[in-house]
Amino acid sequence: MKIKICGLTDLKEAEYANQNYVDFIGMVLFFPKSKRNITLEQAAGIMKCLDPKIQKVAVVVSPSLEQVRAIEQTGFDYIQIHGEIPSGYAESCCLPVLKAFNIRDMKDFSQYSADPAVAGYVFDAIEPGSGQVFDWSLVKEVPRDEKFFFLAGGLNPDNVAEAIRSVHPDGVDVSSGVEYGRERTGKDPEKVRKFVEAARKAIGDKAVCDQVYCRPESW
Ligand SMILES: O=C(O)c1ccccc1N[C@@H]1O[C@H](COP(=O)(O)O)[C@@H](O)[C@H]1O
């Protein structure tokens, strides 16, 4: 079971990821509508501060091939794509894709599950990065294959254990749920710590571990 903290925007947030030994971080790119959108140059600076063991995910919405190539050159390990994967991706790009499904897109699931460029799935609420929880029963029946299954959408320190027990994902993904409230923006180190602690505690629960789908070592 892996933990992903998404939407990092500055160097101190990279430090929170290091301090809590998270497995993945995400950074939102080429999506100015998001308050977490940063430039490739900012992302490169954040990457330099990250523990090299942490996997770096570029989070994008229907990117162009040109944007994907720029992301590849910046040194990301994965690309999380909401919306459409650009046509010609397999021929000219090599970053493994985490295909995000904003739950109304589930009709496209079988198409993407057959795509060799797709290394994993991120199941998220309708509005990405909105902090909204969706009905987890919608993904409980998703057939488990060799691709990685991240649960996202409104997770927070108070509901992540229940999410793990209920859905048995391979990984949990959070952004809004570890941020400050209305008065301040950015990640709250105390919420990051509590989220990671709650997730690890739930994972450590033997009854849960026995049911969680086992991943290959590389994950
Ligand atoms: O965070 C954003 O603004 C964002 C923008 C574009 C695509 C995805 C985005 N966020 C991703 O949404 C999930 C869940 O976030 P939350 O915990 O519900 O806030 C996560 O993967 C974010 O990276």
From TrEMBL:
<dbReference type="InterPro" id="IPR044643">
    <property type="entry name" value="TrpF_fam"/>
</dbReference>
<feature type="domain" description="N-(5'phosphoribosyl) anthranilate isomerase (PRAI)">
    <location>
        <begin position="4"/>
        <end position="197"/>
    </location>
</feature>
<protein>
    <recommendedName>
        <fullName>N-(5'-phosphoribosyl)anthranilate isomerase</fullName>
        <ecNumber>5.3.1.24</ecNumber>
    </recommendedName>
</protein>
<keyword id="KW-0057">Aromatic amino acid biosynthesis</keyword>
<keyword id="KW-0413">Isomerase</keyword>
<dbReference type="InterPro" id="IPR013785">
    <property type="entry name" value="Aldolase_TIM"/>
</dbReference>
<dbReference type="GO" id="GO:0016853">
    <property type="term" value="F:isomerase activity"/>
</dbReference>
<comment type="pathway">
    <text>Amino-acid biosynthesis; L-tryptophan biosynthesis; L-tryptophan from chorismate: step 3/5.</text>
</comment>
<dbReference type="Pfam" id="PF00697">
    <property type="entry name" value="PRAI"/>
</dbReference>
<dbReference type="InterPro" id="IPR011060">
    <property type="entry name" value="RibuloseP-bd_barrel"/>
</dbReference>
<comment type="similarity">
    <text>Belongs to the TrpF family.</text>
</comment>
<keyword id="KW-0822">Tryptophan biosynthesis</keyword>
<dbReference type="InterPro" id="IPR001240">
    <property type="entry name" value="PRAI_dom"/>
</dbReference>
<keyword id="KW-0028">Amino-acid biosynthesis</keyword>
